[in-house]
Every structure is written in C-alpha cells, then in structure tokens.
Here is the input.
Amino acid sequence: MRMLDIILKKRNGGELTSDEIDFFVHEYVAGRIPDYQASALLMAIYFQGMTSRETADLTLAMAYSGETVDLSPVPGIKVDKHSTGGVGDTTTLIVAPLVAACGVPVAKMSGRGLGHTGGTIDKLESIPGFNPFQSIRDFIRIVKEVGVAVVGQTESLVPADKKLYALRDVTGTVEHKSLIASSVMSKKIAAGADAIVLDVKAGSGAFMRSVEDAFELAQEMVNVGVYVGRRVAAIVSDMSQPLGMAIGNALEVREAIEVLRGERSEALKEVSLLLGAYMLYVAGRCQTVEQGLEMVEEALASGRGAQKLKEMISAQGGDERVVDDTSLLPVADEVISIRAQRDGYISGMDAYSIGQAARLLGAGRNTKEDAIDHGVGIVLHKRVGDKVEKGEMLAEFYVNREDALQEAIDTFNKGVIIGEQPPQHKPLVYGVVTHEGIERW
Here is the structure.
C-alpha cells in the first residue's frame, strides 16, 4: 500500500477503505509517513469530504493508536461529557458532580485552553493542591471510590490526534466536520466511557459559527458513536455570548461553586442541568430526559452535588474547603470597572472578543507552552438584552498586570454592542441530536 495512491484516491473524490485509513494512521504515528504527505491527505479530505463510515473508521484508527482506558473495574455504565469549546463554559465543574451524585459514574479526561477558549484542566488547577494529572490506575480508582474524576489526557492516549491536530492547526484544515468529529470522538472512545453527551457550540465564540454547521457536526459525532456502539446525545447550544458571567480560571471555578450551592440561576446553570439530564438518560439511569432533569435538580437543591465536588477535589489532592469558602481561590490584585459609554440595550456580546480580552489579561494562552494567571479575568454584569445607562457597570476586570490592559479594554468594548432597541431573542439551546435524529427546539 502506498501513501501516494491514498492521497490521489481521496483527491479525486474516492472513498477510502478501512485498511487504507488504518494504514495512514498507523504509519503516520510510527513516523513512516512524512508531514507533507499527511498534509496533502488532510487537504484532500477538507475539500472532498468523508462518508460517515470513513469518519468512523478514522475515529477508531485514531482511538486505538495508543493507550486506551479500561473502565470495566468501575461498576455500572460510565458516562463522559464533552464541549466543543467556548467562553465562560464551566459546565463540567457543575454537571460532573451532579451526575455522580445521582449514582452514575463520570470518568472525564479534559484538556487545556488555547486562544480564546478556556480549558477545564486550567480551571481545576486554580484550586489549591488539585492534581489533574493522575495515572490511569488512580483515575479508575477515584472514579470507582468517589464516582467522578476529571483528569488531564495522558501523553500515551490517542497520539494520532496529537500529531494530526498539530498538523491541521498549521495547514488550514481544522474546521472540517469529519476531522473535528474524529478528533473529539477518538479521545472519548479511548477514555473508556460507555455513554457520551456532547455540547456542540454555535456562534462567534465557537468553532462552528452557524447553527446549521453545529447541527451537522453534532450529527457526524452521533453517527460515529452509533457506529462504534456507544450511546451518544449531542445538544446544540448558543455561544454568541459567554455562557457564564465569569471568564477566567479561578473566577469560573467560583461561579461553578456558586451554582452548585444554589446561589445562581443563569444560563450556565440551565445548560448544565440539561446536559446532566441527558447524561443520566444515555446512561440508562432514567426513562426520560424529563426524569433526568428532576434528578439533577434534586441533587443540586439537596447539596449532594456540592458535596460530591468536595469529594472529587479531595481525592485529587485539592483543598475541598474552596467549596465552602471561595476566597481560598487565587484572586487578582486589582479590580477595574468597565462602564457603558452610552444609553441603550446590549444588542450583542461577541464571545470571541470577550474571550480574547480575558486572554490579554493573562487568563489564556497563545501557545501551549504559555503560562496563565489563574486569578485574572472578567466578570460580566450584563447580558444581551439588558438595558443600560451611560456610566453603568458592564463588567469588572481582575488584573495583575497592566502591559496589555488597554488593549484588553478596547477588545472588550468592541465586543459589546449597545443599540437603541432591544435585540431579537436568541435561544440558549437550539436542539438535540440522538440516534433517532435531529430535534430542533
């Protein structure tokens, strides 16, 4: 089998066989296919596309390109959750303990943030002592004993995705639904979960800018899940404005804890509860999503979700007292108020610009090697549709350095649009995709 023949076949619109896909992934990971040939195939895929069967075969080849996690020692159906990324998207810290408190084991591997998107691992590292980098043996032990663990992806897990994503990032082939689907689902399959719930974002702060593109990506990932025998559901939710009111690592942890303590009831809580309901549903813990919603709402109201977060933090070496006292989290030295420059209504909040503003403050990174400041970020005081008066507070900037402060302020102000009329309402969730099809809301 020759790599050139595979490139030519896909370039000309052909459908690759399972053996050809396996050959490409195996040989590329082994270093026997050069980057320039892998790049050529990725570009051919970008323009010619892949069938659902090709996408599933690519996903499986990537999933088994390295170490995999066997969660069979943990009783019951294990569930995982994944978001395609966004701004102020702290649902994992809320939904994982809530679902575990309902008796369904949650085994989740997460990543770091890059660019304008936040990473769950970065957020958890703002908790004093918390260690997200557990061995696979300890990962399984914690899930078995506590019911939930959120850890960083090991270097030996899905090496094909690491190599291919790095190549896609520099060859203009990131935004293709089959390549995104295989990247996401290969990691979920390798991590060992029996059931998976996906939160596919649509809007300015997401990979998929349009709702239709988000539904197509959701369908592709659900198809892969069905093909490999996993129970998968994907909700399509809005990321045209930040989901939570906090953007920045410790600030987002604080907001998640406040949700779990029953102190907040905004968009972040609503999406988290919906994700939790679907996680219980795909795990077979309830007969309907409505029953699942009642279960996670009870776990929240009773405090069992907050208690489960304490147990997870403690099991992973962190200071569980942060759940009762968020002042133990790192906080910036200075807080600066950002105020409205005119009267009107918030007609738009560009999630990408707001995420970039937080990155400029030090809450995010440009490259994977960059250090982040866990205490800095932005806390919003307004959302789209809110009426504002000139001089009224729009947000607070938590600042430790001022070298890029003015650029951050300018970037934020460009992302907040104040108009004369209230904007048209935009739904928080656009619908859900399951093996039964698409349901638009």
Summary: The first strand starts at residue 79 and ends at 83. The chain has a mean pLDDT of 94.
